[in-house]
Design goal:
CATH superfamily of chain B: Cytochrome c oxidase, subunit III, four-helix bundle
Shape of chain B: elongated
Number of strands of chain A: 0
Structural class of chain B: mainly alpha
Largest sheet of chain B: none
Radius of gyration of chain A: 22 Å
Order of helices and strands of chain B: HHHHHH
Largest sheet of chain A: none
Number of strands of chain B: 0
Helix content of chain A: over 70%
CATH class of chain B: Mainly Alpha
Order of helices and strands of chain A: HHHHHHHHHHHHHHHHH
Number of domains of chain B: 1
Strand content of chain A: under 5%
Oligomer: heterodimer
Helix content of chain B: over 70%
């Protein structure tokens, strides 16, 4: 660790992982509820479990992004963080608000939560992924602004690099687009339209910038390839992400009551969205092949390569699968969407945060460059267990989705939603099994932080 | 002199150009496919476009590409001043293109024609506007090249940045050369 203030990243990462564990626990509950509908009812109804599962994901990724930025920006800017105190203060505010919100979801009915938080004064609740009480949303904005101020000031007083600039643009975009969470028009078409400004323009827009910047940073550090080469790739990748991703929002506008041209725009531009992800894959492997050094932290390199591949598969390929309007006409909102959502979030954003944690945590824990060999081996096991499990979750959901699309919508003699759900139950059981394996992988991952701590640091010779 | 076996400019811009051309290629293919199913509608609507203005714009872009070629040639002869002037000339041509195109758009809008009028106009506006944005982007790159030329950043031996900008500009030009007959002329 070059700068003392980078250590503020550590609590962010720890809470991120803790919430990740919570997210997966609720995922396994949720998976079981697909086949045993009243499992844990009425304590944890399906809708609540789902809300907790998705909200925890978003919150822990935000913790991860912030931790990543607090580690990355001082190092890139070659200066101490502007205000470590502010970073820690915001950490506590965000952590307390996050935990209270999740407890609110779990302990009281959603309608009561809306009343308790006085949602009627400025109603923003009740929309998928943006279920947070208005007061939590305001808290998120305050935390985001303080965070941007903090890293922005750090950048201003230090060296400006392409990596930190791209990261800053991505994070600023994240904050700006979140503001649409406060816009809840009466008109249902408009409501959906702008809702996607948060959801889509995050994950298929500005978050890709964040991912690109973090990936570039870790590759610069672990491969020793010239910054100039890596930055060039970064620029090309983010330009392509924005060109395809911004207008690609249209693929959510096919059937919500918007003009027909969105079907063309959405189809054409989003069909190109795999390109930047493909470039990221080529980029990551190219840089690692051209490496000028073998970094002792091989686990971090594995995560970096893994995220490039899995993001391309999950976001790129599985997204393309149902992005064209004539296909989406049949697949819209089926388990194919769920399959895509799982692998894309895992491949792109879960794995990029874990890449950053894997790279920086050894230094945050006082190591010089890497964890011990033993710890890294356990971590790499967790990589494979989680990643392979996610591939199976995705495949099983895709199977369920294809059958669902066919039986419910495509065949000449369609049957009802619930009948179809019964018929594809075997896939849900298999998915639940894969989910349990994922949870095991995650436990192994957490264990890797507690194993081999007293052993010597891995050296390049071990790693090569 | 640098090795002429490699493409001019930065390799990264060629990857970018390839990606951009794929987007346009898909757009063109979808246009052709849709036109095949609506030939009469497309032919009829096409007549309302101003082919003369589009021809002027075609010549404008080709001329601007020529100016860019001269700019690269000038820097190879170590004449930064000429290089700068040629880039400015190309930029002015780009500006002329944007003005003519804006005039056309304004004309359509004043007649109440927009994206939603019919399938032909949907493609006409989408394709030409997407290209319009590329002209803007190309001009931003050329402007950056002009600033760097002025600052003396390019030499006869090393002017990769300028070649990069020039390559992108030629792509913008080339796309229009396909777009013009496809949308305005072909029947």
């Amino acid at each position: 660790m070059t700068y003392q203030s980078q250590s503020v990243a550590k609590p962010y990462f720890i809470v991120a992982i803790a919430l990740f564990v919570g997210q997966i626990l609720f995922g396994t509950i949720l998976g079981l509820q697909y086949v045993i509908g009243d499992f844990l009812f009425p304590e944890i109804p399906f809708n609540v479990a789902r809300m907790v599962h998705t909200n925890l994901l978003i919150v822990w990724l935000l913790f991860g992004f912030m931790g990543a930025a607090y580690y990355l920006i001082p190092e890139e800017s070659e200066t101490e963080l502007f205000s470590p105190f502010l970073a820690i203060l915001m950490f506590w505010i965000f952590a307390v608000a996050g935990v209270l919100t999740i407890l609110g979801y779990l302990l009281v009915p959603y309608a009561t939560l809306a009343e308790l938080t006085m949602d009627d004064l400025f109603p923003t609740m009740g929309r998928e992924f943006l279920e947070q009480p208005t007061i939590t949303k305001i808290g998120i904005v305050i935390v985001a602004l303080s965070f941007l101020f903090n890293i922005g000031m750090t950048m201003l007083k230090g060296r400006k690099t392409a990596v930190s600039l791209v990261l800053m643009i991505g994070l600023t975009g994240l904050a700006v687009f979140f503001l649409f969470a406060f816009y809840v028009p009466e008109n249902l078409v408009k409501d959906k339209f702008y809702w996607w400004f948060v959801v889509h323009l995050w994950v298929e827009g500005v978050w890709e910038l964040i991912m690109g910047a973090i990936l570039a940073f870790v590759l610069i550090k672990t491969t020793g390839v010239d910054r100039e080469v890596i930055e060039k790739w970064l620029y090309v990748i983010i330009a392509m992400s924005l060109i395809t991703g911004l207008i690609g929002t249209g693929h959510h506008f096919y059937w919500i009551g918007t003009p027909e041209y969105w079907q063309w725009w959405g189809s054409i531009f989003s069909a190109m969205e795999p390109i930047p992800f493909f470039m990221m894959t080529i980029f990551a492997f190219n840089m690692v092949n051209r490496r000028r050094r073998n970094h002792p932290n091989q686990a971090a390199v594995l995560w970096a390569l893994g995220t490039a591949v899995m993001a391309f598969l999950g976001a790129g390929v599985w997204g393309f699968l149902h992005t064209l309007a004539p296909v989406n006409y049949f697949t819209h909102g089926t388990q194919i969407t769920a399959a895509h959502g799982h692998m894309a979030f895992y491949g792109a954003y879960v794995m990029i945060v874990l890449t950053m944690i894997s790279y920086s945590m050894p230094m945050l824990n006082g190591r010089k460059e890497a964890n011990s060999n033993k710890s890294q081996i356990v971590e790499m096991w967790s990589f494979w267990i989680m990643t392979v499990s996610m591939v199976f979750i995705t495949l099983f959901l895709t199977g369920a989705g294809i059958l669902q699309t066919y039986m419910q919508r495509y065949t000449d003699t369609p049957i009802s939603f619930m009948e179809v759900q019964d018929k594809v139950a075997i896939f849900y059981w298999l998915r639940e099994g894969a989910g349990i394996f994922f949870l095991i992988g995650l436990i192994v991952y957490v264990a890797s932080f507690f194993i081999g701590g007293d052993e010597p640091e891995a050296t390049v010779k071990d790693a090569a | 002199m640098k090795n002429r076996n490699t493409p001019p400019g930065d390799l990264a811009i060629w990857i970018f150009i390839m990606a951009e051309l794929s987007v346009f290629a898909i757009f063109f293919a979808v246009y052709a496919f849709t036109r095949a199913n609506n030939v009469e509608l497309f032919n009829e609507s096409q007549l309302t476009l101003d082919r003369n203005l589009a021809l002027i714009n075609t010549l404008t872009l080709i001329t601007s590409s020529y100016f860019v070629v001269r700019a690269v040639a000038a820097i190879r002869e170590n004449n930064a001043k000429h290089c700068f002037n040629w880039i400015i000339a190309a930029l002015l041509m780009g500006l002329l293109f944007l003005l003519v195109k804006s005039y056309e758009y304004n004309h359509h809008y004043s007649e109440g024609i927009n994206l939603r009028t019919n399938k032909f106009y949907m493609f006409y506006f989408s394709l030409t506007f997407f290209h319009f944005m590329h002209v803007l982007m190309g001009m931003v790159i050329l402007a950056a090249n002009a600033i760097k030329t002025r600052a003396g950043n390019y030499t006869p031996e090393n002017h990769t940045g300028l070649e990069t900008g020039a390559s992108y500009w030629h792509m913008v030009d080339m796309v229009w050369i396909i777009l013009f007959p496809l949308i305005y002329v072909m029947r």
